[in-house]
Amino acid sequence: MTARPDLDRTAGEEAYEPDPRRWHALWVTLVAGFMSLLDVSIVSVALPTLQRDLGASPAAVQWVVSGYALTFALMLVPAGRLGDALGRRRMFLIGMAAFVLCSAAAGAAPSVGLLIAARLAQGLAAGVLAPQNSGLIQQLFRGGERGRAFGAFGAVVGISTAVGPVLGGLLLQVADWRWIFWVNVPIGVVAFVLAWRLLPRSGSGRRGGIDGGGVLLLGAGSLALLLPLVQAESGGLTRLWWLFPAGALVLVAFVAWEQWEVRRGRDPVFDPRLVTQTRGYGLGAALGTVYFVGFSGIWLVFALFFQTGLGLTPLQSGLAVTPFALGSAVAAVVAGRVVERVGRLLTVLGLLGVLAGLGATVAVLLLVPPDAVPWAVAPALLVGGLGGGFVISPNITMTLRDIPVRMAGAAGGGLQTAQRFGATIGTAALPGLFYVVLASTGQDYPLAAAAGLGVALVGIAGALALAVVDLRRTRREEAAEREADDHDDRHWHAVHS
Q: pTM of the full predicted structure?
């Protein structure tokens, strides 16, 4: 099903003139994307050190990680819409400046309370940055170049998530924990200056009012659904379970409000026609959500198994999962070059690779002596990483390819919000099951880790099912279009013979 005329590519797309500095601009935005996503995972390895140095409780120090992830997710869609309305360059510069300042404040925090406050603000700044990345790619690139740009973006997503524990462990080994935050400052300053010079000054070409009601409803509904999950380790699922139905009702009201805004001819914060009338967007967002349930949660399971179960240092733990990051980076770049030709089939093949790699990892955990696992698991993780590189960037490309440039920020923010929802579920469910199995089996760490990865396999299998559905739908539509073209050709020849 194609988009309605009012969602089709606008004149801004037909009048596209390649920006000669677009590839340099891309690298600036990718650095910013790497920093914002890295800060989701890099802090995890420092939690024991933070707890000791700041005299904080486990529940309080957990907010250093979960608070950032929460505000990051809440800001994505509103910031994407603001980028569409006010200009992506402007919003990128605002977000980068705020991210640098909040990083400096987090590194200088004298107490856990001030550190949490700085991290909450840092998450908001990261949420401003992230949707501008995908929006600028939509704005600056077309055709095969767009696929390659999203390939680079997908590599950044995969590497930043996987390499966070490695960099965090390295910084803890050679410097104070505060440098986990301060390292963002010089990189961010350079990125700000380059963005000021290289990013296009033109906006989305369409200004409009900000949908305040939609922002409030979306924020309240998302907060209600995410808060019990980010507090899962301190009993949030038990204490705050009632927020799930409340949040669902608020999001139903949000959808109704957005539909009303469309009927009144106004610009909603998230146009529901992106899901209902834009080919591939709804299924792609659902696929990203389910995939990130497994993809994001496995890193915490690995960290718990390697550090707590095997006694490895944070750096050694991070290095043990490096094969996944390397495989993902290489495959993502390749995927960006071939996605325009291969299409959704690339995602299907990638998900099969992830299933094979993580399935082999589970077998290694259960069959190989624990001391040999860090080495024995490397080939399986490499296979999983190669598959993962064929998932994230192609899915972004396929999900956003029919989105009008004027709505690229909101659409990209919506897609990343879906991924953050999946990541939040995964980072709560997988470690939670790890601890449950650990307690019920007399501290059997390999079995607990295998159980956590089993949940990831279920999520990835769900993503594979969605990818197959989308592949079959796409092939039916392409066959119907070919048949229509053949019918038109036969009719023309019949008329002119």
A: 0.80
